[in-house]
């Protein structure tokens, strides 16, 4: 895995050249870009495998907006946003939030949400007023956290509120976004400038607050306090930095962040403390250098990260 080296975030492989795309897919891509207002970075990666790209576009359209659907498209979009937050996918949270905030009278899909509406939706305590929609959200949350252990009470509530075709459609919405979230986060697809630059919406804020709590589970209770001093050197737009911070936030760990793209002194300190490394993030625990995201993941795989952070085992 190659860590972030520049100011712009990059996926783990280069984008494909749209010129190499089969002509038969041109109209599907054009339609997708017109609906979104831009060509998503994820599609630029799927272009490496046109057959998969075609399948995913068709699956997305069928699950989320097909005329044969039995569930309200707006409900499915809201569920998609909640599932993406639970799955800790900033890329998909940004896309779903952008769609929810779109102009309902515009050319693309839009539901007229405000920033506050989106934040309220992603709050783990959010409960729709409509009983059927509330049953959908209860199922979506439970199935996303553990699809093999959806409580019987949640299932009963759902099957009493929805028809069998609606239940199937909802389950497919939840499963579709689990797949999409996994693909996009594993490829480190960066959120497009069209979303981060031109709109008042902070993906990192949503995942760091409501999304982090949702992923942990609202009823999980407080985590043991970490006793270690943690310092992390980052750049703006760095997906590896964002992931490292999300790991720490998910564990309830406080940390000091130093932005090397804004502070030359911080950059020089990072280089000196890390024996010449210039990639980010660079992470220090109690003054000791553990490396970047790879180093943190290695500690986690070895079962040593919590102890390193001073988190007492429960």
Spans where pLDDT lies below 50 across 5 or more residues: 1-8, 198-204, 208-223
- The CATH architecture of the largest domain would be Up-down Bundle
Rg over CA atoms, rounded to whole Å, is 21 Å
Put simply, the count of helices is 15
Element-by-element helix/strand order: HHHHHHHHHHHEHEHEEHH
Proportion in helices: 40-55%
Structure description:
The chain has 314 residues and is mainly α. It has two domains: 18-205, Up-down Bundle (AhpD-like), CATH 1.20.1290.10; 222-309, 3-Layer(aba) Sandwich (Glutaredoxin), CATH 3.40.30. Helix content is 54%, strand content 5%. The chain has 15 helices and four strands. The protein has helices at 26-36, 41-46, 50-65, 73-86, 90-100, 115-122, 131-145, 152-161, 164-186, 193-196, 203-216, 239-250, 264-273, 293-301, 305-309; strands spanning 230-234, 256-259, 282-285, 288-291. The protein is globular and about 60 Å long. The two termini are 32 Å apart. The model is unreliable at 1-8, 198-204 and 208-223 (pLDDT under 50).
């Amino acid at each position: 895995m190659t860590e972030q080296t520049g100011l712009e975030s990059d996926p783990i492989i280069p984008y494909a050249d749209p010129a190499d795309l089969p002509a038969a897919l041109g109209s599907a891509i054009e339609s997708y870009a017109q609906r979104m207002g831009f060509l998503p970075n994820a599609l630029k990666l799927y272009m490496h495998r046109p057959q998969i790209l075609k399948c995913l576009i068709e699956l997305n359209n069928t699950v989320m907006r097909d005329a044969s659907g039995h569930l309200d498209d707006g409900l499915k979009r809201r569920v998609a946003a909640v599932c993406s937050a639970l799955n800790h996918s900033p890329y998909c949270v940004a896309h779903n939030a952008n769609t929810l905030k779109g102009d309902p009278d515009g050319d693309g899909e839009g539901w007229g949400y405000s920033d506050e509406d989106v934040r309220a939706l992603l709050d783990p305590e959010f409960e729709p007023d409509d009983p059927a929609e509330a049953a959908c959200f209860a199922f979506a949350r439970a199935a996303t956290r553990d699809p093999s252990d959806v409580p019987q009470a949640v299932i009963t509530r759902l099957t009493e509120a929805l028809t069998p075709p609606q239940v199937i459609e909802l389950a497919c919405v939840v499963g579709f976004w689990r797949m999409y979230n996994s693909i996009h986060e594993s490829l480190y697809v960066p959120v497009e400038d069209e979303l981060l630059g031109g709109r008042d919406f902070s993906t990192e804020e949503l995942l760091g607050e409501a999304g982090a709590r949702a992923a942990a589970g609202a009823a999980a209770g407080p985590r043991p306090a970490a006793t270690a001093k943690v310092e992390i050197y980052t750049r703006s737009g760095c997906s590896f930095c964002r992931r490292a911070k999300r790991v720490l936030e998910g564990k309830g760990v406080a940390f000091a962040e130093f932005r090397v793209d804004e502070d030359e002194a911080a950059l020089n300190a990072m280089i000196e403390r890390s024996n010449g490394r210039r990639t980010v993030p660079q992470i220090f625990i109690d003054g000791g250098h553990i490396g970047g995201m790879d180093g943190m993941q290695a500690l986690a795989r070895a079962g040593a990260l919590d102890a390193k952070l001073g988190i007492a085992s429960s």
